[in-house]
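WARN no homologs supplied; continuing
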Amino acid sequence: MLRLLGSMWLLLCAPLVMGQSQPTFVAQMLAAHPSVYLNFNEAIPVFHDQVSGAAFVNSGTGIVLPRQQGFDKTDPENTSASLSYDAYLASPNNSIGDFEWDQPFTVSLNLDRLDLPRASSRSTGTVLFMKGDQQTAYYMLYVLSSSNTSQLCFEMQGKGAIGFARYTLCETIGGYANDLPNGYNYHIVLTNDGKGAPTSLGMVVNGIPPANTHTAVTGYYRNFFGSVSATVHGGGGYADTTDFTSVGGGSNCVVAGHMVSSAGVPTGALVFTSNYGCTEVPALTLVSPTGTGAEFSVVNNRISMSTALTSPLVLAGATKGGISTGNNGNRLSSPLLFDEFALIPGIPDPSTIYGLYTNTKFYQAFLPRVPAHPQPVIFDNDTCQDTDNLYALALAISLDRLGYIALRGAVSTDGWGPGAAKYRQMLDAAGMTKVPLAVPSLFTQNEGEAGPCPTADAKSYDPSTPTAISQYGRAATMYRTLLAHSPDKVAILVGGGFRGIMDLMQSPPDTISPKTGAQLFAAKVSGLYLQGGCLCAIKGDNTLIDWQAGQYVVSHNGSVPIYFYGGFPQASGPGVLSTRVEHDPLRMMAVRVGSDSRNAFDSMPVVGFVTNAFSTIGTTAVNGTWTIIGPNAAMGSPTPKSNHFFGVPTLLASGGTNSGMLEAWFLNSLINLRPEVASMNR
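OK structure emitted
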């Protein structure tokens, strides 16, 4: 697909207004059965746990202001608490928030309009919360900031009979959700699965798992949670190295490595390759030994979080050596705005975790009210020409599940048969087996086996799916059928060439309808929502994919409005690899190309049909300066019309400080929306 490039960021326009009718975040949170839940809605700076009634009060020297604007600007009862530098909230007793390392737990934290100073070094961080004491055992969330980036880290440390265990999970710099740009709201979910593994910690930022780096600190912090110490003595006849594994020790106990021998006699040295998760003492067993007589002595290192009981749960601060203080960020820091905070024993199912984000008020503020009768939509795109085309269909599927649109049909304008098969399989996987898929009369593109949708993937997912383009019906027939039989007007969301639409517009009367295609188009199409467009001197447009069809459609749209979406958006897709099952057609594509991220070009007209949160709508053409520029100037350019609309920029282009991440989080949480979440929101 050709892209509209240039410095101008043309964002999304839409005919709908914003609103809310989804379930409340509070209801969703309480359904997760938290042990601690603060909503910060009190009128005085004393904030009560909604579960136990326990009061969290300012225990620092800074200022705490209640009743600050919350996520939802439209709801005066949704407020946040403002905590200045050196202000912090402490729990009234030390037992609140106490979890042992082998007890799974979840933390949910909502921050409003984060505004951190960008220091020149990363040596100083801002602690968002801590339970425990940095000198013994704790878990905490903190942000490290530098001049251009910020890194969010979740850390857990336990103390043992010898040494400590410390795990740290940080966003990878360069990963999807890094940078934590200022001015945005953040919904952060942290998890510990209780298995004691170096990868036991998890993080979800605004509905998407960011690219993360797990670290288990070595050296003095040489232990893992649930690790053991072991020695071996006696025996002979062994190879230089003999593998060993563990038996027992608890359901998550994993101890493995190899025993070192010299001249057949064990030297006493054991090399561990895995050593974690044991709640009891396991037995170590040699694998296929050549000798006999070696005996193991095993003891548990007794890594524990129990000393965290001696310290309170602290928000916007930390405890060290028994002394709690406000966060150790820069004194020039803006206040931290806490909107919601919860601790949940166990790990909720994924639908709840991702549903929490889709029910946050700042997320809901982007969405209009779910219509009583969603407008029918036909999705028309060039499938596997680019991976963002597939994410756009996934977005349309989710919007259908949520009740915002009624996806009635799809068109694949790429001449590659397995590409059409990919769309068919995505629809089928979503339960939309009755949604028809068609192709136009002519193709100007054919991705081929080298693209993201090879024949092998289509056959692997479902060998019965047609992979020959000739096995799919014509777009004109599908368009005519759907338009003729629809009692409501239909919107067409386009991300590729316009051949299928031109086929419709030029079609004659037939047994489907006595009307011509032009008459059906005029009577039953509410609007065309197109990725691309050309504004002033910016060259490049999806009409260039199929010049003849593009010229025809934009010259013959009559009274049907056309909304053009251009610009260079942030990524769509992140989360596909981590949230979808292995045998999923979209995940198979991401595995094939080695990435689940691509600029959200074709998602723009799809989400733009639902919300105008990311742009305003133009009311006229751009004073006659709009034109379509192509390789064949002799064909001329259509005259700009008063119903050709363009998005007005509201965010900076990719690479700017506010690089469109807000839109990206919104899109990707929808693209990766689980069916269970969709059903809860209907």
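The mean pLDDT is 81.
OK
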